[in-house]
Known about the structure:
Strand content: 15-25%
Mean pLDDT: 83
Largest sheet: 10 strands, mixed
Helix content: 40-55%
Amino acid sequence: MITVTLFGKPSYPFHYLKSVVKDKLEKAKVHYKIIEKTELSDFMNQNIDQIPALQFENQIMYLDKTHSKSSIQRMTKTILKNENFGKMTKIISPVDYSENSKNAFEYAFELGQDLGAVNKLIHVYRPSATAIDEHVSVYVEMEKAENRKFKKYVSSIFQDKTTKLGKDQILDSEFLIGLPGDTIIEYSNAPNHLIVMGTKGNTGIAKRWFGSVSTKVAKSAQCPVLVVPPQAKYSGIENILYLADELDLDGGIVEIVKKTFKEKRPNIHAVHIDDGEYYDFEKLKSVWSKFYSSEKLKYQLLKDISTAALEEYIEKNSIGLIVLNRRQRSFMENIFHESMTKKLVLHSKTPLLIYHANDQK
């Protein structure tokens, strides 16, 4: 349990600060205790310069009455960051300074507004062989230079975002060192994480969806990974297309949607590509309807296995997200062998959410 101490006299700013702090901590499901100190002697003992003020750990923070919203955001972020943001959804956006990674962060930020999430921008610095071979002082200076570059980038990206934050949304960033793919996977290996990554948009089926780092992350990350194609823009997700293929794994998608989108409840379209084998939609309906509103569940068998038929369904039903289960067997073989390629739409404006069967647990 954490302790937050508030200093001040009963007033609107004091009660507003208290109510916002309580609301943020409760929504993040952080166990807390708030102590109120309203006597002059309490202020003097802690060298409080102005009220209202907040003390957390050994840090005193003051409410800027002319910019109360931003100052309270800083206070609550300081508290929640110390608790790793509790059980808030953490949207991790790795950036490599490319336009595609910047676009993916813009998408993630808009999604974070809807979810009341923590948007965390990260950059993984991979020291070059030359830097490692150089003298230690040279290596340290190169690392510091990269860190400064990242901070400058974050400042430019966040500059116009602080006034657009959703009610419970928080912005954060972190500079990391290591191999990008491995570091991102390890960093996100915790509950309530969602990785949002851009693609390189190169030619070829695999490269059209994934860059090499994105491929590694999508293949091995234990949390869901949202891959955002170039030019994709977030405008709310009202319809999700799920490629239903294996009944024993397909039942868990509704839990993934509920966990990811919280109180948002998009329509889920279960689409099965006819491969000649019987698919029991009635069994899937009986499972899904226990956990999700039946009126928001759609079922479709596509006889035409061409990508054109799937693209037509996406366009006709305003699909904003394609969801794919990574399966337990080899992910890359599962996606990119010929039959799956026919099922997977490489649609330039439709993001792809990849989840592991164990994500639902």
